[in-house]
Amino acid sequence: MFVRKRTSKKAKKGYTWTVYIDYEDSYGVKQRYTKGGFQEKSEALNHGIEKQQELKQGIEIKLKDKTFSEVYLEYMDVEGKFKYTHNTMITYDSIYVNHIKDGIGNAKMRNLSYKALQEYFNGICDEGMGTTTGIKRIFCVTFKYALRVGYINSNPMLMVTVRGKKSERKQDDIITFEQLEEMVKILCTVDEKKRNYVPFTHYSFCIFLYLSYFLGTRKAETLAITKQDVDFENNTISINKQLVYHGFKKEEYYCTDKMKTKSSRAILPMCDKLKEILQKWYKKNPYDLLCCDEYGDYIVPTDCCRLCKESAKKIGIDFHPHSLRHTYISNLVLSGVDVKTVSELARHSNTSTTLDIYAQTTFEKKQEAINCTFNAYLDTKSNKKVTNLKNDILN
Q: What is the distance between the alpha carbons of residues 166 and 184, in angstroms, rounded to a whole number?
């Protein structure tokens, strides 16, 4: 038996305790009992001792009575922590705490039939599609685990469909190179009210923007790129690690070669413009890390995003680091690059993600073409009669 502390935003202390008991059932099969939500460590230990006494007396723990939360937490402890990156673990935990734990998480696994699950997902269809698919992902991995260990006999999640509101992509999600240059200019401008020089980190933030724009890398990937990853001779940059920072202090940051997906690891081509920028940056930055502070250490991602967002606001655009990745993909699509190549360059594990962006971007391009064509057509003097007819109909 052992207990572990787990982060909980809703707990008074910011965490709760979970007890784990490993034992063999009547068939000699290894099993694990899990129970969480204890406010004190002593409560978890006392509960664990009671369950151990039951086992000694020959009272087998009823696996069928496990709640969804118990099975999910067990899955994350047995498999999840070895399979997922730290950032993914944080994301899963956030979804679990905010949407599952205090509700359907208390339901017994044996009661979660297809009908019950479908009704649950129908009830949250007003949430964004990103939220509902995230919740479904947690249910899917948990039910697959429960099936593997014998807690359930079938997986009802295979039949469940998920709905949700699709968020309309704003025009500001696409950052033009001119806008990017304006943001860089603001970051490199001396703020005389604060200091009479531009901090080294501000230059690093600019490099972060350029790398994200020209490579389409995710934030954690961009902040982990080193000079060793850059090959000027072959004009390539290797994406092979990411920065782990969620829930850590700056001095605790570290890089891991465990990527988001298998396709995340790749060698990307480097354009001439980015090559020119990096060669100039090398003369100013003596450290191996491309995006670093004045001591060569990792920069704080929240500081980087905050200042980039502030610089974007000054030129009237709403900025998010992922906007640059979206821009990268959209630029490839608008340049006529085929879907397969776009998917490979974006390093998407699922081509459906690429297709969604591809379809949206090409539709906007068609819509713009139609508007430009007919607006210009109706505004010409030679088509005055058409314009008058249009006015007559509308009036």
A: 32
Pick the closest to residue 270 from 202, 322, 217, 330 (CA basis): 217
Paired tokens of 31: 């099993």
- Would you call 37 helix, strand, or coil by DSSP? strand
User: How many domains does one find in the chain?
Assistant: 4
18's enclosing H/E stretch is strand 15-24
Structural domain that includes position 227: 177-358
Q: Helix (H, G, I), strand (E, B), or coil: what is residue 287? A: coil
Pair 251, 334 in one domain: yes
Does residue 303 share a domain with residue 208?
Answer: yes
Q: Are residues 375 and 353 in the same domain?
A: no
Q: Within 10 Å of residue 161's Cβ, how many Cβ atoms? A: 8
In the chain the first and final C-alpha atoms are separated, in Å, by 80
In b/e form, how buried is each residue of 110-130, taking b as 16+ CB within 10 angstroms? Answer: eebeeeebbebbeebeebeee
Looking at the chain, list the stretches that DSSP marks H as alpha helix, in order from N- to C-terminal side: 41-56, 68-75, 81-83, 86-95, 114-123, 129-149, 177-187, 200-215, 219-222, 272-284, 301-314, 321-334, 339-346, 351-379, 384-394
For residue 154, tell me if it sits in a domain: no
Residue 386 has pLDDT above 60, yes or no: no
Higher-confidence position of 180 and 246: 180
Co-location of 322 and 184 in the same domain: yes
pLDDT tens digits, 299-358? 999 999 999 999 999 999 888 888 898 899 888 888 888 888 888 898 887 766 666 665
Q: How far apart are CA 284 and CA 268, in angstroms?
A: 24
Q: What percent of the chain has pLDDT over 90?
A: 50
- Is residue 349 located within the same domain as residue 256? yes
Whether 82 and 230 map to the same domain: the answer is no
Is a pLDDT exceeding 70 seen at residue 222? Answer: yes
Which of 102, 101, 19 is CA-nearest to residue 61? 19
pLDDT computed for residue 58 by the predictor = 61
Q: Are 318 and 172 in contact (CB under 8 A)?
A: yes
Domain boundary among 63, 84, 99: 63
**Can you tell me the mean pLDDT for 200-228?**
95
Question: Per-residue pLDDT tens for 24-54?
Answer: 766 566 778 888 889 999 999 999 898 888 7
Report if residue 158 sits inside a domain.
Answer: no
Encoded tokens for 123? 């009830």
pLDDT at 51: 85
